Amino acid sequence: MRRLGFLFRPQWLALFVVVIAFAYLCFTVLAPWQLGKNTRTSRENNQIASSLNTEPVPLTSVLPHQDSSAPDAQWRRLTATGHYRPEAQVLVRLRTDDGDPSYEVLTPFAVDGGPTVLVNRGYIKAGEGVPPFAAPPPGTVTITGRLRDAEPVMSGKEPFKQDGITQVYSISSTQIAQLTGVPLTSEYLQLVEGQPGGLGVIALPHLDAGPFLSYGIQWIAFGIVAPIGLGYFVVAEMRQRRLEKAQSGSSTETSGGPDPDEPAAPLTAEEKMADRYGRRR
């Protein structure tokens, strides 16, 4: 225990706390965060790839009621017949198209014999104020779009009204339903190319898993290496202390005895006589 006494010094205790806290964060926060993103991205890529080879189905088969939800049908192409409700139309701010600032136009769509769903009609380029854009067609139309999850509300960004139209910062069906007074399903539709009421077509994301898996593995590796590195420094410190102790002991022994290479001091007359009589005895 005396050899390990240095571990209780403040600097070593602080190092232990930092390493343990770092390893804990690696295993409980950082690695799960990246691995979770990898899982979501892989799931989304699989859903997009599957939707490309799957024929559209009626929206009412996936969302039959107003409170229906279909998290496993994301990116699935759905068809719906009904009419737009342009009086409850809103714009989404802070969007980009090929790097250019833009808005996205959201209009509720009442499905015949089904729920009212929010439809993302596509993007318009941003300009000074709200640029003019085409109104949705009146009457009954049939549209095809991809089912999408609603987005969380952006904190600190309140909706406002400008040029007679409400503007929001995220596609939140719950928030937009509260603003417009029109009940909406939790998911929304993103129009594909060539649809009635469609504007600039929003491109599909690239089917790239991204670096999240490798980042997650790296955080796990860091969480393993950190305690190992700490153990290495502890062992190295113990070895250094043993070496210094051994060198100190050797130096003490050498300084405590006569040097064999140094000539002996001459004996006095009394020492010679005592030595002579002692030998005779």
From TrEMBL:
Q: In what ranges is there compositional bias, type Basic and acidic residues?
A: 269-281
**Pfam families annotated for this entry?**
SURF1
Major localization class: membrane
Question: What kind of membrane protein is this, topologically?
Answer: Multi-pass membrane protein
Q: Where found in the cell?
A: Cell membrane; Membrane
Which Gene Ontology cellular component annotation is one that this UniProt entry carries?
plasma membrane
Q: Where are the transmembrane segments?
A: 12-33, 212-235
Alphabetized, the UniProt keywords read: Cell membrane, Membrane, Transmembrane, Transmembrane helix
InterPro entries hit by this protein: Surf1/Shy1 (IPR002994), Surf1/Surf4 (IPR045214)
Which parts of the sequence are annotated with region: Disordered? Answer: 243-281
Quote the PANTHER family the UniProt record gives.
SURFEIT LOCUS PROTEIN (PTHR23427), SURFEIT LOCUS PROTEIN 1 (PTHR23427:SF2)
For this chain, the family text in UniProt reads: Belongs to the SURF1 family.
The name under which this protein is listed is SURF1-like protein
* Organism per entry: Mycolicibacterium llatzerense
